[in-house]
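Same chain as my last thread, 277 residues:
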Amino acid sequence: MSERHLYISDMDGTLLGTDSLVSPRTASILSELSRRGVLFTVATARTPATVEPLLADVESTVPAIVMTGAALWDRVTQSYIEPHFIDDREIERILQACQRHGITPLIYTLTADDKTIDVYCPGALDAGQQQFVDERSSFRLKRFHLSTPLPTESRARVVLIYILGAMAEVEKLAAEIDQDCNCSISVYADIFDSTRSNLEIFAPGVSKAAGIKRLIEITGATGTTVFGDNMNDLSMMAVSDRAIAVDNAVDAVKQAADMVIGPNTADSVASFIASEN
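reply #2:
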């Protein structure tokens, strides 16, 4: 495969194993490929606060698509690139809808130096949300502000409004926001708890697909292959030259894929890329 071919992998359920880590074998394979000039990166709903620790042993100079495409992350300069901010009027509509549904959103804002995310939690968190926060509260690239309304000075730099909750309630809220607000949304089942759903709300036009198109421009890639497992990977699969699902992917992703490879537990993404290079 040409070294101008760009490989992009989802993280959770695809590149990461069931322990939510990059295996030493995958890290070794991908780092060696990157040293040889193979273009590899990730496209994920995660922020750099968790992307960087997870990819600590993976050498790659291609920017990562983070927060489902709300921004790119330059792994070399450790800074955000081209963030997309949600309009203040839409923020107000979204917060009012959350209040009507009794759901506390997590509001992600980017600091002025484009280095760090401040997350504001304006209300009480349920057990699942609290666990989510606790697992991330020590990361250097993300700071949580619990029981704190969104400050006026931060409203112009909101890149993501994230909601985690009971599936039925989250899907009702998602439908209302999709109808009433000029935003991009992504709603999908939580891979760790099948009774809960994730709802991500972004500026218009944000998606993994849009992030891939921008990476093609940045890298000069002549072709793309993407790897995924969940519903929020479908948009990037649709715009790539080749879409590959891991064996543990949901049925809709397998059906949309050009090929199905082994599961995320078997270093399948790294092994496939190595087989072509």
